[in-house]
Specification:
Layout (H helix, E strand, L loop, with lengths): L5 H13 L2 E5 L6 H16 L4 E6 L18 E3 L4 H10 L2 E5 L11 H6 L3 E6 L11 E4 L6 H11 L12 H14 L9 H12 L4 H9 L4 H14 L1 E2 L4 E6 L1 H6 L22 E7 L3 E8 L5 H8 L3 E2 L3 E7 L10 H12 L2
Parallel strand pairs: 1-2, 1-4, 2-3, 4-5, 5-6, 8-9
Antiparallel strand pairs: 7-8, 9-10, 10-12, 11-12
The structure holds manganese (II) ion.
Length: 347
Amino acid sequence: MKPIETEKIALLDSMIEESRKVVLTAHMGPDGDAVGSTTALAAYLEEVRGKEVKIVLPDPVPESISFITEGYEDRFIFGKTDLEACREAIGNCDLQVTLDYNDFKRTGILEEMLSESKARKLMIDHHLNPSTEAFDIVFSETQVSSACELLFHILMKLPDIGSDASKLPKRSADALMAGMTTDTNNFANSVFPETLQMASALLAAGVDRAEILSNIYNKYRENRLRLMGLALKDLMKITDKGVAYIVMRKDVLDAYDVREGETEGFVNLPLALDKVRMSILLKQEDDHFRVSIRSKKGVSANKCSGLYFNGGGHEMAAGGRLYVPKDISDYGEAEKYIEKVTDEFFS
Ligand SMILES: [Mn+2]
């Protein structure tokens, strides 16, 4: 990653000092990195800086990563369940922080409130092509594993932490380790020298990694593994261009009682095959499929998502949406659409 500029840190430090009420935000369908980075920054702002903090998210925290926020639930407000409270918190804050997303569009129902707010705005993110116009300070770095990692490096530079990870609140340290671990898929993707330095510093500061791993990977419900079996055995298709895709329609999601977060990591599985260059997972939602794309080195998941799935993200890991009936006329057309566009993408 490029070095973090000292002047920017000084600016951030005074911006925090001058603020009283802070709102932290993250993207729709929050993952471990979104929840970890907002929780970690909230604990720092509260415990070290004495600020009043609210974490405002479009959607609730999935059960599968709720261990990160245990005992901290009262800091959270969700657009899906209490839009008025979100409006009030955003309207009353003097500093608004964007974590783990690059454009207010990624906050869905909160988009308008966040972009129209008069508060000062700070972005800490690791996605490609950030929309930075609205922001007073931007920390945008793609050569990091996660928003949690970027936030860690920023916190370490702040004077009251002074490169000593043991000065971070315990909740911050734990949440940073958890978010980095989920975004790297436990050190499998996007690991940089600084990522391991972060892990080392947090371990030395007393973070219990074994407990975090157990919370992330060993607490699922049985339905997840049963569905994973079905996905690999029956749903996965592989094109002759080396694209693996899995389409999960509503009947399957209902039959397996799938909750938010329970298909986490499925999209990575087909990459285990030598012949697979790119993997695409579609999950049916209200008026669209939610799309996840992962690719191997040399193939751009980001580009494919931008071209055909209304999305983007990172070079080898991207998200998006396929709208019905805007992009395809019917949910049953998804397979045909994927075959057609990926054939075009690789020719
Ligand atoms: Mn992330």
